[in-house]
């Protein structure tokens, strides 16, 4: 009676001698000494099954044919297989995938601050790009390419060709791939996703679709948009040294002269569409015997206050409109005149 009242567990009775061999689709045949297999607990002292036991029973009852998981679980497979064999059940096909690590070769972990799929969506990545990128972690297609649609991945992917070595989650490459997907997007589809990011930065009554058109080929993730377009909202404070450009052969003095010359032309010009502005400036350049960059660089600097912009001078002016464009050019003249 004393022994019956004592708590007990039910264990798996594994052999202590010999070896157990199982086959993995990536790592091939793996053999372990039975002496290394512990008699794992199947039923706990409270009468409930352990995860390891329940997992095998559940997979069998659900008709699981393939078990795909990380290679850190390779050591568990022989014990699972002995359970399958003890019940007379068919052993599933095992596919143990290599680990995914960060650039410091540490295992990815949400606990360590690594991004989940949902995090990546919030960070401005496209689902299609993430799927494409993850599919290439540890797997190389037979053809030399990196961009695949989901349909193409389904047709080309073969887990038997996965590497045994850990794959590195290179966020820089993911951003590049995301940028390629963004470039290839339909214009309207891109605008639908980009609009919220644009509105957070530009509150003035500008044509936001035209702004989206300027940045679509220049960003890798959607939060990048703000850094490209913030000058539309307000002309930033800038150093007049930006007017100097060796290749354009401009400096602060030549830029001041050009802006003073072009201001009356732009004041008299009525059509501020990109094509009309470019035609007017091209005529001015030809009339004065200037190079395009000699005139367009000072204008772009004046209307943006930036060294790099997502569009040219006339594209920016079309969005800003006549009044704001002229105000910024006059501001440029004032800054240059005060040197």
CATH class type of the largest domain: Mainly Alpha
User: What's the domain count?
Assistant: 4
Strand content: 5-15%
Q: Describe the main β-sheet briefly.
A: 2 strands, antiparallel
Form type = elongated
Radius of gyration: 32 Å
Poorly predicted tracts of residues: none
Can you walk me through this structure?
This protein has a two-stranded antiparallel ribbon with strand order 1-4. A two-stranded antiparallel ribbon has the order 2-3. Strand 5, helix 2 and strand 6 form a beta-alpha-beta unit. It has 339 residues and is mostly helical. The longest helix has 25 residues. The chain has 4 domains: 88 residues, 3-Layer(aba) Sandwich (Rossmann fold), CATH 3.40.50; 82 residues, Glutamyl-tRNA Synthetase, domain 2, CATH 1.10.1160; 49 residues; 98 residues, Arc Repressor Mutant, subunit A (Orthogonal Bundle), CATH 1.10.10.350.
Give a quick summary of the entry:
This protein folds into four domains: 10-97, Rossmann fold (3-Layer(aba) Sandwich), CATH 3.40.50.620; 101-182, Glutamyl-trna Synthetase, Domain 2 (Glutamyl-tRNA Synthetase, domain 2, Orthogonal Bundle); 185-233; 240-337, Arc Repressor Mutant, subunit A.
Keywords:
two-stranded antiparallel sheet; mainly alpha; 339 residues; Rossmann fold; elongated; 8 strands
């Amino acid at each position: 009676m004393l022994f019956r009242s004592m708590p007990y567990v039910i264990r798996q009775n594994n052999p202590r001698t010999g070896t157990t061999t199982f086959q993995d689709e990536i790592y091939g045949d793996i053999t372990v000494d039975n002496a290394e297999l512990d008699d794992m607990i199947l039923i706990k002292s409270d009468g409930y099954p352990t995860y390891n036991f329940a997992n095998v029973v559940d997979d069998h009852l659900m008709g699981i044919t393939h078990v795909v998981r990380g290679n850190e679980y390779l050591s568990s497979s022989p014990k699972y297989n002995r359970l399958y064999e003890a019940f007379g059940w068919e052993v599933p096909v095992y596919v143990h995938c290599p680990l995914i690590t960060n650039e410091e070769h540490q295992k990815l972990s949400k606990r360590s601050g690594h991004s989940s799929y949902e995090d990546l969506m919030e960070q401005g990545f496209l689902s299609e790009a993430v799927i494409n990128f993850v599919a290439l972690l540890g797997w190389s297609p037979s053809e030399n390419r990196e961009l695949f649609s989901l349909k193409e991945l389904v047709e080309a992917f073969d887990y038997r060709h996965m590497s045994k070595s850990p794959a590195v989650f290179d966020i820089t490459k993911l951003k590049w791939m995301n940028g390629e997907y963004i470039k290839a997007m339909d214009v309207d589809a891109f605008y639908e996703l980009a609009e919220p990011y644009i509105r957070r930065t530009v509150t003035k009554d500008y044509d936001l679709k035209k702004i989206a058109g300027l940045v679509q080929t220049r960003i890798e993730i959607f939060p990048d948009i703000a850094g490209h377009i913030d000058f539309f909202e307000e002309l930033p404070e800038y150093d007049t040294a930006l007017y100097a450009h060796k290749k354009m052969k401009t400096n602060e003095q030549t830029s001041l002269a050009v802006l003073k010359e072009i201001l009356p032309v732009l004041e008299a010009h009525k059509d501020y569409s990109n094509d009309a502005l470019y035609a007017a400036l091209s005529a001015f350049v030809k009339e004065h015997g200037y190079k395009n960059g000699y005139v367009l660089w000072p204008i772009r600097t004046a209307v943006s206050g930036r060294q790099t912009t997502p569009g040219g001078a006339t594209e920016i002016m079309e969005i800003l409109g006549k009044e704001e464009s002229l105000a910024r050019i006059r501001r440029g003249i004032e800054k240059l005149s005060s040197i």
